[in-house]
């Protein structure tokens, strides 16, 4: 039995992510809008960790990635060497 591991370098995870089936509006809201719905969807997504790794590796500055907002990812970068 062969189990394939998806990594951030492998964009195949994106097609399996729940956000790909939902639409970008939740994940890239207008400034000041709530990201609650995006985080709820991320919380159910099996690709969440790959998504977050991708966002951190590619310095994504906008939107919700891996269940974290821009500010939360920025704070994570500060505490992670």
Automatic annotation (TrEMBL):
Annotated function: Acts as a transcriptional regulator. Probably redox-responsive. The apo- but not holo-form probably binds DNA.
Name of the gene encoding the protein in the UniProt record: whiB
GO cellular component: cytoplasm
Family annotation (InterPro entries): 4FE4S_WBL, Whib
The UniProt record lists the keyword Iron: yes
Free-text comment on the cofactor: Binds 1 [4Fe-4S] cluster per subunit. Following nitrosylation of the [4Fe-4S] cluster binds 1 [4Fe-8(NO)] cluster per subunit.
Keyword Mitochondrion: no
Alphabetical list of HAMAP family matching this protein: WhiB
Binding sites annotated in the UniProt record for [4Fe-4S] cluster: 19, 42, 45, 51
Similarity comment text for this entry: Belongs to the WhiB family.
Domain 4Fe-4S Wbl-type: 18-75
Keyword annotations of the record: 4Fe-4S, Cytoplasm, Disulfide bond, DNA-binding, Iron, Iron-sulfur, Metal-binding, Transcription, Transcription regulation
GO molecular function, one term: metal ion binding
GO biological process terms held by the UniProt record: cell redox homeostasis; negative regulation of DNA-templated transcription
Protein's name in the database: Transcriptional regulator WhiB
Post-translational modification remark: The Fe-S cluster can be nitrosylated by nitric oxide (NO). Upon Fe-S cluster removal intramolecular disulfide bonds are formed.
Gene source species: Streptomyces spiralis
A Pfam family per the record: Whib
Cofactor(s) this protein cannot do without: [4Fe-4S] cluster
Compartments in which it is found: Cytoplasm
């Amino acid at each position: 039995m062969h189990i394939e591991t998806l990594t951030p370098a492998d964009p195949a995870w994106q097609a399996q992510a729940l956000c790909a089936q939902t639409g970008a509006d939740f994940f890239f809201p207008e400034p000041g809008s709530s990201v609650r719905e995006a985080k709820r969807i991320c919380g159910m997504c099996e690709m969440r960790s790959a998504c977050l790794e991708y966002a951190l590796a590619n310095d994504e500055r906008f939107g919700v990635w891996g269940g974290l907002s821009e500010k939360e990812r920025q704070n994570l970068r500060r505490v992670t060497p």
